[in-house]
Specification:
The protein is of the alpha+beta class and 1829 residues long. The strands form 12 sheets. It has a 5-stranded antiparallel β-sheet with strand order 1-2-3-5-4. A 5-stranded mixed β-sheet has the order 19-15-43-42-41. Strands 16-17-18-20 form a 4-stranded antiparallel β-sheet, with no helix packed on it. A hairpin with a 5-residue loop joins strand 29 and strand 30 (1687-1692). It is globular, with a radius of gyration of 44 Å. 45% of the residues are buried.
């Protein structure tokens, strides 16, 4: 067969691996397959540049990854038994009705027709008048035609629209056969059941969905007039996403004729005789001799049905140990040559001697090697991710390659064992090999002599034991030990460990043999692993001395042991003269052999029969002859298909009982076995398939199944015309019908199947495109478009079925969602469209576990596109906040946002044009751009967004709106009219589907490209939430954003193409990039997170990012700012461009939280950066110097005059400016960046001094900054000092000038500064200018050194040796820095702030500085001779005002060390011709001071808020202890009676409270005032009639349930009631309530009759109820559910406690927990919960061991409320004491704090913690709520 394939397709035989007689697995290259599909013919030859061992590894069935460019294909050889022409599809005249009336009408018609046909055939002419009207089948052309297989040619790649049919690459005739090449699918249902059983064990939906798909496939086959064949777990293929595949090529299609021709000797396994054992079975294994086994192993025809006979043969020593073990390996699915699934044999000795050192076979080799202690450690649970187990595997792939290292190429060993070839690491001898390995042996060590010979020059042959002469001798003697009696005696123990009952259950635990492959939950579909063949202890092998024989055993001769007979011993003392009496043997004792047992044979026989009956359920079967009934062939085929489907369904759900079935079992054998299983234990049949088996297989009343010759039809039995349910015989369409409940398919299955089919259709389209002959660019473009359509398909399914599919249903969708998140071309769209929908169903914990890596990867993409702007927008960020939780968000995404704000995630506009080649795509659609799914918490409508001014007094408190998790309708509310909503937060309405269609599509980029709106959003921060980029509201924008932008006919532009075209028409300042969106999002986050989290996660990272903006030589390149977008500076470098948005964010945060942020965080950070540079001058250190100066220059306008004077001398000058000047002018410090970095630092230093001078005025500038300027200009002396004499000697200066090549020393060379006689203002006569050395750079490259997460720059540090050796180099470096250009750039700005007179008086080297300025001025004049008349420089930036003369007047009134700047008109000194001084730094004094905006002033940090913020800022992340300081931060006033419950939301900026005053209120937490402010609520729910004592909020449905003995379900965003469940009728009064963990939509309520009722908030109805106690335990006071949803703990008023299994309702335990009434019960983790009581105790309970409770000591009064903070317990008592236990164990330390009366008034009644902010919400009996830290 392999030769036929090789001749037909040119595939060498070594690239083919036989799977069966007619099936082969092939290995080809993608290009080869592409040629075959495109050309329709085979390439001339297949490149074979790969070794044989690599081919063997790639063809191993367990191999899951095939490297490029190799592809695996499946080749089938099929007999040409019928016409391969495609049957014409007849018109589908029959449609299954979906209404109940139509269904009943259809059933009645079918039953009537079938009954008529039966009567007519019996009493009429014996011939049916018409064909049977079978549901689900189309019109049949001939009744006599038997249904065969599908036409193969109809499923060639690209011609099939059925996603479940495996596509065919090629079909070729070869003689009487047809060779078909199919796509390779690696898994079958058997793979799941054998190697990944937990996939179906832990879910009902998954196996049901497999059956649902099979019915759909059967329906497809039947409509094509084809049989699907006998379905079994071995021939139904499935991929890793649990999608069913069925091949169109049926190599064996059972027909009536073929079945009648079967050999009559092939009977059922249950009626096999001993003669067959001796003949057929022994013939099968006769070739399994040791020296031939490798050739015949994979072709071994032994079946699982033969296993009972094989066990008996081995027990009775009819086959050898070697053969039997290999047969067990074969039956367990182990494949020869498969590294992951190679056959295993036991290590039987340690090779220390030829007959010594036998191994203990009662324990595993892994246990012998590792020891019990290590196995006990791995069996313990260290974490939630660790799976307790003893043994990882029987034989790993690494061990397999080590065993065969001598015969395996180095390339393979380096790939699988270790990447670096080290021969010494491989065991050198057999003894060392046995000692080293924890795995079992392989058969080659018993048979193959070549395995010891090395093919490597540097790896010696495997050393053999000293007691053997050669490899042949070793193999023979090794095999003799395996067959020895000592090994045979215990070999059954090894079989139990490897294939038997010690693999599962308590036996596995006791023998320390729990295998990881059997307990790892099988989350991955595998086709290899550990298979358990036996469920009972394997019988031992009969010893040769006592083996059962036809005759009785003979007694040995010497059976009389005389010394043991007492009679003879007595006679020995008789006198010698007396005669001795010898008794006959009949009176002697008979001593039997030592191991003789007369019942051994009987016990062995009984054990064998018990083992066989329990394991194989083998019972003889009686057959009754049955008259052959002629059945319509089409009906017969459909019935047989249905019966095989039902058998398959039963085998899936009863996998443990049917695990030993082989693929060769006939349908009759499988059915008979299932009948036997049902008879023995009917209760083992799962309820979900019980109805199916009753109606399709009649297992409750099974009919005897005769052979096919006797019964005369294919189906196992005939169905009655009408079933017991009144239904006609079953068909696939009938079972799929929603009104026929034979299988409990969930209601979402049809939509899910249709969704996945649509996804598969898209995959087929992509495959077709890949095989098309088009250019690569166009091919990639088409694939991207189709791939993005898959996102829309999934989004529609999730939206339409939201809340219907549940936890099991979401697991079926997850693989497809993950695939979209993984693909680069769909990741952004999938995150934008699907994340919120899928996160709502999964809950925060599971969403973070599954999707966090994908989301981080999307943010960290190598090359960004405009689409990535969406994920930085706040509408997506709020989804991350809600679905991942605040803690996960701030720790994983805050740094990514900061990096983006610096521009390091920006897309490059030029790169977009590479992708914007518009391709001709006939009939295709562009990628769908649906808008962001509405998130209730953050649904923002631009038309409805409004601004409100806070008109309330500050002392009364800021009236905060509910933070953005709680938008509400406020347009018509009194609070809105009163302006009680702060204008910086979003107010939005709920959006339903109709509103969403009218809103602007946020998904589109079109809303981001309006420059006017962008400018408004960036510049005008006074507008409502203008920090978010605005979106267009015009009516055309939805169309433009959601539909394809079409150019010429047939040309499709993607959204990115249109965006690139729009952006290309705009200037650089108008282009919106990722950094713009990220900046606005950071500003929004800074308001949302609050002052503490903003300082910890945003401000800190922004300051760190500022340093990284100047890291690297490319960041120091001088650039220009023709559009005046950046702050004015003496020298603008590329780093300033990147730092611009970072500084903007820092400024916004300081505007929001006040000047104290600058004083206590920003300025200390600059000091730290300078101090770090002084300590160690590295690349980061010098970048930190620049960033410190840049930050300081931007902080100065934010400081008030008094704060500036307070910090000027001691901090700014002494700790920042002074050390910086010393560093930059030091001749002994080497800067890694050289002169360029020093130059930039000097220019930034000039900026800082100049801004300070403008702020201080003349007098204070001269007083405060003279020393700084003197020190700065003194640095020039180090370069020019040797030529400098006294400043009075003009001649020396002239000589110096001439020596430097300048013109004569006329007075015009000086900068003549004089006082104008008329205006008395300083004037400068001689023109000065600065040359520009700017270099234009259009692009830059993102480096990892500019990432906060991957900052791995290799810093270079100065060494003392280098400073000595490079003295001349450092002098030259200083000369390059302190040059005429720097003199000009610094002298002129300083002259403006000090005045000419002061400079002449206090600057010692002023003449030198003036001379350098003049020299630079002249050099510029020489390079631009015409510049005086006309400016020619294209890079002039700072154009002064029109007036050529301006006053320099500063007045200040000094009070102590503080100044007040008097409102005096001030202006700047101006120079002569403008252009030559255009590069000199000039600023308007108004630009040096920034007024804080009034709308932010209420949130400025002061008083208690400042103390709290400063304390938290100084804490380390490792400081996890909750430290309660009693600092009051905020008061919430509104309730008039006692607070009964507080619920803080996960966002920690809002909470809900319930009170005795019959109201529930929603609050917003926001810093304002000094801690004495009072805040009013945002929303109030007033529908309760009694005191409210419990409240829960379910994030999954975004609804609140509040209880006052009746439960109210209402929407917190609209205050609208959903339903009120009154306590009348069946609804009993409620005493306690709790919510199930997310993503559940259930709330558990406790009734006054101690019943638990489950309330589904999605449907607002009760679902089911559980009983909580078997005795009268009193009222339920509190209950809690474990985080993993497994148990419920209940506390009663009597002190009793109960533990209930939440999944089954079983009562686990009831016990006396406390002596007094239970106050509160809360779950901590999946095994621990805590309870408090009136008996003054707080106890910790373990759900797995309830006997010994741990008592938390400390409180002397009842703790009526408590909560958890990390692993600590925070509790409160009615005595107003707050207690903190440091841990949940008996060793926990306890601290107690009594609340002060000035901090908290009233009696403490409720408590809630905000863990990220480390604050407490405390409710009092007077109705007030306090926020304390």
């Amino acid at each position: 067969m392999a030769n036929d394939i090789s001749e037909a397709f040119g595939i060498p035989t070594k690239f083919l691996k036989p799977v069966s007689a007619t099936k082969f697995l092939g290995l080809v290259k993608e290009q080869w397959l592409l040629w075959l599909v495109e050309k329709g013919r085979c390439p001339e030859e297949l490149d074979t540049d790969i070794s044989d061992s690599e081919i063997e590894g790639l063809l191993a069935l367990s191999n899951t990854q095939t490297p490029q460019p190799w592809v695996r294909i499946f080749i089938k050889i099929k007999e040409q038994s019928y016409n391969l022409q495609m049957l014409m599809k007849p018109p589908d005249f029959y449609t299954v009705p979906h209404t109940l009336h139509g269904h009943l009408d259809n059933i009645s018609q079918r039953v009537y027709q079938d009954m008529w046909n039966t009567v007519y055939s019996r009493y009429g002419e014996g011939k049916l008048p018409t064909m049977p009207h079978l549901q689900g089948l189309q019109n049949m052309s001939s009744q006599e035609c038997v249904m065969g297989g599908l036409d193969v040619s109809g499923f060639l790649l690209g011609e099939s629209s059925i996603p479940s049919i495996i596509p065919v690459y090629a079909v070729k005739k070869s003689g009487d056969c047809v060779i078909v090449i199919e796509k390779y699918i690696s898994h079958t249902i058997h793979s799941i059941l054998a190697y990944s059983p937990a996939i179906v064990n832990q879910s009902i939906a998954k196996p049901l969905f497999l059956l649902y798909q099979l019915l759909k496939v059967m329906l497809t086959f039947h409509r094509q007039r084809a049989r699907i064949g006998d379905l079994s777990i071995h021939n139904v293929l499935v991929d890793s996403n649990l999608w069913i595949y069925k091949s169109a090529v049926l190599t064996k299609v059972p027909t009536l004729e073929s079945q009648l021709k079967l050999d009559e000797s092939c009977t059922n396994m249950e009626t096999v005789t001993n003669s067959r054992i001796d003949m057929t079975l022994l013939e099968k294994i006769e070739n399994m001799e040791p020296l031939q086994f490798q050739h015949y192993y994979n072709q071994l025809s032994v079946e699982l049905g033969d296993l009972p006979i094989l066990v008996d043969m081995w027990v009775n020593r009819k086959i050898s140990n070697f053969k039997y073990l290999l047969i067990l390996n074969h039956l367990a699915g182990r494949r020869m040559g498969d590294p992951n699934h190679h056959p295993v044999l036991p290590w039987v000795m340690d090779f220390s001697g030829s007959d010594t050192g036998l191994r203990d076979l009662t324990v595993s080799k892994f246990r012998l090697n590792k020891g019990d202690h290590q196995l006990d450690l791995t069996f313990q649970t260290f974490s939630s991710d660790h799976i307790p187990h003893h043994v990882p595997d029987v034989l790993s792939d690494i061990t397999y390659y080590v065993y065969k290292a001598r015969q395996t190429p180095k390339s393979t060993l380096c790939r699988y064992v270790r990447s670096k070839w080290v021969p010494n690491e491989y065991p050198h001898s057999m003894q060392r090999m046995q000692e080293w390995t924890p795995d079992e042996c392989i058969p080659e060590f018993f048979t193959e002599v070549s395995i010891f010979t090395s093919i490597h020059e540097d790896l010696p042959d495997l050393e053999l034991p000293c007691w053997c002469r050669s490899a042949e001798d070793f193999v023979m003697r090794h095999r003799e030990v395996l067959e020895s009696d000592s090994v045979s005696e215990d070999l059954h123990h090894w079989i139990d460990l490897t294939f038997g009952f010690k693999l599962s259950g308590s036996a596995a635990v006791q023998s320390k043999n729990v295998n990881l492959r059997l307990v790892d939950n099988h989350t991955t579909v595998l086709n290899h692993g550990v298979v358990q063949l036996f469920q009972e202890p394997h019988p031992h092998r009969i010893p040769p001395a006592t083996s059962m024989k036809p005759t009785a055993p003979r007694l040995p001769k010497n059976m009389f042991v005389h010394h043991s007979l007492p009679e003879l011993q007595e006679e020995s003392h008789v006198d010698k003269g007396q005669s001795r009496v010898i008794k006959g043997p009949e009176n002697d004792r008979i001593t039997l052999p030592k191991m003789y047992d007369p019942l051994a044979d009987l016990n062995q026989l009984e054990a064998s029969y018990v083992f066989s009956s329990r394991t194989f359920k083998q019972m003889p079967k009686k057959r009754d002859p049955q008259v052959r009934l002629i059945l319509d062939p089409v009906t017969d085929s459909v019935w047989r298909d249905m019966q095989s489907f039902a058998c398959l369904a039963c085998e899936i759900f009863l996998k443990d009982q049917t695990s030993f079935q082989d693929s060769s079992w006939s349908l009759e054998d499988r059915f008979s076995y299932l009948c036997q299983v049902y008879r023995e234990n009917p209760n083992e049949i799962p309820r979900c398939i019980a109805s199916l088996l009753e109606e399709v297989l009649y297992l409750h009343n099974p009919q005897p199944v005769d052979d096919i010759a006797t019964r005369g039809h294919l189906s196992l039995f005939k169905y009655p015309t009408v079933s017991s349910r009144g239904l006609p015989p079953p068909t696939p369409a009938q079972i799929l019908h929603p009104f026929v409940d034979l299988l409990p398919f969930p209601g979402y299955f049809p939509q899910l199947y249709e969704c996945i089919c649509n996804l598969r259709h898209k995959d087929q389209e992509i495959d077709q495109i890949r095989w098309r002959k088009i250019n690569t660019l166009e091919k990639d473009k088409l694939i991207k478009v189709i791939s993005r359509e898959k996102v829309t398909i999934l989004q529609h399914f999730l939206e339409e079925n939201q809340g219907c599919y549940g936890e099991e249903g979401i697991e079926l969708v997850l693989p497809y969602v993950r695939e979209l998140f993984t693909r680069e071309d769909t990741a952004v769209q999938a995150a934008w469209s699907l994340f919120n929908l899928i996160g709502q169903e999964l809950g925060q914990k599971e969403t973070a576990r599954i999707f966090l890596p994908y989301l981080v990867r999307i943010f960290n993409v190598e090359q960004s596109t405009p689409k990535h702007m969406k994920i930085y927008h706040r509408l997506f960020l709020v989804q991350l906040l809600v679905r991942l939780g605040l803690n996960v968000f701030i720790h994983n995404f805050s740094s990514l946002l900061v990096e983006a704000s610096a521009g390091y995630r920006d897309y490059v506009l030029e790169d977009l044009y590479v992708d914007s080649v518009f391709t001709n795509i006939p009939g295709s659609q562009k990628d769908s751009t649906t808008e962001l799914p509405p998130l209730k918490e953050e649904c923002v409508s631009d038309e409805e967004s409004q601004s409100y001014e806070d008109t309330l007094p500050v002392m009364e408190g800021s009236e905060d709106e509910l933070a953005e998790d709680f938008p509400c309708i406020l347009e018509d509310s009194p609070q809105a009219e009163a302006g009680s909503i702060d204008d910086e937060e979003d107010i939005a309405r709920l959006s339903d589907a109709s509103q969403d269609e009218d809103r602007t599509s946020i998904h589109s980029l079109a809303g981001l490209i309006d420059p006017a709106q962008r400018e408004e959003a960036v510049s005008d921060l006074e507008e409502e939430d203008s920090q978010s980029l605005q979106f267009q509201d015009d009516a055309e924008s939805p169309k433009r954003s959601s539909q394809t932008v079409t150019g010429s006919k047939g040309m499709v532009r993607s959204e990115t193409d249109e965006f690139a075209r729009t952006m290309s028409e705009k200037s650089e300042s108008e282009v919106i990039n990722i950094k713009d969106v990220a900046t606005e999002s950071i500003k929004w986050l800074s308001r949302r997170l609050g002052c503490v989290l903003t300082a910890k996660f945003l401000s800190r990272n922004l300051i760190r990012m500022l340093t990284l903006c100047y890291l690297g030589d490319e960041q120091l390149i001088t650039i220009t700012d023709s559009e005046k977008r950046f702050n004015k500076t003496s020298r603008l470098v590329f780093g300033d461009r990147n730092a611009h948005k970072v500084l903007e964010c820092l400024s916004e945060i300081s505007q929001l939280y006040g000047e104290q942020v600058v004083l206590l965080q920003y300025i200390p950070s600059t000091v730290d950066m300078v101090a770090l540079a002084k300590k160690r001058l590295t690349q980061k250190g010098e970048a930190g110097l620049i960033s410190a100066l840049v930050l300081m220059r931007n902080l100065l306008p934010l400081l008030s005059d008094s704060s500036l004077m307070d910090t000027l001398q001691e901090t700014i000058i002494k700790e920042v400016l002074g050390p910086t000047i010393k560093l930059v002018s030091s001749p002994s410090h080497h800067f890694p960046g050289g002169s360029s970095i020093r130059t930039v630092i000097c220019h930034k230093l000039v900026d800082v001094v100049y801004v300070i001078g403008l702020r201080l005025g003349f007098e204070q500038t001269r007083n405060q900054l003279t020393g700084v300027v003197n020190e700065f200009f003194a640095s020039f002396n180090q370069v020019y000092g040797q030529q400098l004499i006294k400043s009075e000697s003009s001649k020396s200066l002239t000589d110096y000038k001439q020596g430097r090549g300048n013109r004569g020393g006329s007075s015009d060379d000086y900068c003549n500064i004089k006082i104008d006689s008329s205006t008395q203002e300083y004037m400068i006569g001689t023109p000065v200018s600065v040359t520009s050395l700017d270099l234009s750079h259009n692009s830059w490259t993102l480096r990892k050194s500019h990432s906060l997460a991957f900052n791995m720059t290799d810093d270079k540090e100065d060494s003392p040796e280098s400073t000595v050796k490079d003295t001349e180099k450092l002098k030259q470096e200083l000369a390059d820095v302190f040059n005429p250009e720097l003199a000009m750039a610094s002298y002129i700005p300083f002259l403006r702030i000090f005045g000419n007179t002061h400079m002449e008086q206090f600057l010692p080297n002023e003449d030198l500085i003036r001379q350098l300025c003049s020299q630079y001025d002249m050099s510029v004049g020489q390079t631009s001779p015409d510049s005086a008349s006309e400016p020619t420089s294209p890079i002039e930036e700072y154009i002064p005002p029109q007036s050529s003369q301006h006053s320099l007047q500063f007045s200040a009134e000094v009070t102590g060390n503080k100044i007040e700047v008097i409102n005096t008109h001030t202006d700047m000194i101006r120079f002569g011709p403008i252009h030559r001084s255009s590069r000199i730094l000039t600023l308007d004094p108004d630009e040096t001071k920034c007024e804080y905006k009034d709308r932010h002033k209420q949130r400025h940090l002061k008083g208690n808020w400042l103390a709290y913020w400063e304390h938290e800022l100084g804490l380390s992340e490792r400081d996890s202890l909750f430290n309660f300081k009693q600092i009051r931060l905020q008061s919430f006033e509104g309730h008039t009676s006692s607070i009964r419950a507080l619920v803080a939301l996960n966002n920690e900026n809002s909470f809900i409270s319930a009170s005795k005053d019959k109201t529930v209120k929603l609050w917003s937490i926001k810093s304002f005032g000094d801690g004495n402010g009072k805040c009013k609520c945002q929303e109030t729910y007033k529908e309760h009639k009694k005191s409210i004592f419990s409240i829960v909020y379910l994030d999954s449905v975004q609804l609140v349930a509040s209880c006052d003995s009746t439960v109210h379900i209402w929407d917190p965003f609209t205050s609208e009631i959903v339903r009120q469940l009154d306590s009348n009728g069946s609804n009993q009064p409620i005493t306690a309530m709790t919510a199930l963990p997310s993503p559940s939509t259930m709330v558990i309520t406790a009734t006054n009759e101690s019943m638990l009722r489950y309330l589904d908030l999605r449907s607002a109805e009760y679902a089911h109820e559980f009983k909580t106690s078997t005795t009268s335990a009193g009222l339920i006071r509190s209950l809690t559910c474990s985080p993993d949803n497994s148990w419920i703990a209940i506390g009663f008023s009597s002190g009793l406690m109960s533990l209930l299994d939440q999944r089954t309702g079983y009562l686990i335990a009831t016990w006396k927990g406390h002596e007094g009434e239970i106050l509160q019960v809360k779950a901590f983790d999946r095994t621990t919960f805590v309870s408090t009581s009136f008996d003054n105790t707080m106890k910790i309970w373990n759900s797995e061991d309830l006997k010994d409770a741990c008592i938390l000591k400390g409180h002397t009064e009842p703790a009526h409320c408590f909560t958890f903070y990390r692993d600590q317990v925070i509790s409160a008592t009615t005595g107003n004491k707050i207690g903190v236990h440091s841990s949940l164990d008996s060793q926990a330390s306890f601290t107690s704090t009594k609340l002060r009366s000035d901090t908290f008034k009233g009696v403490l009644t409720s408590l809630a913690v905000l863990p990220q902010n480390r604050t407490l919400l405390l409710g009092a009996d007077n109705g007030s709520i306090k926020l304390l830290c």
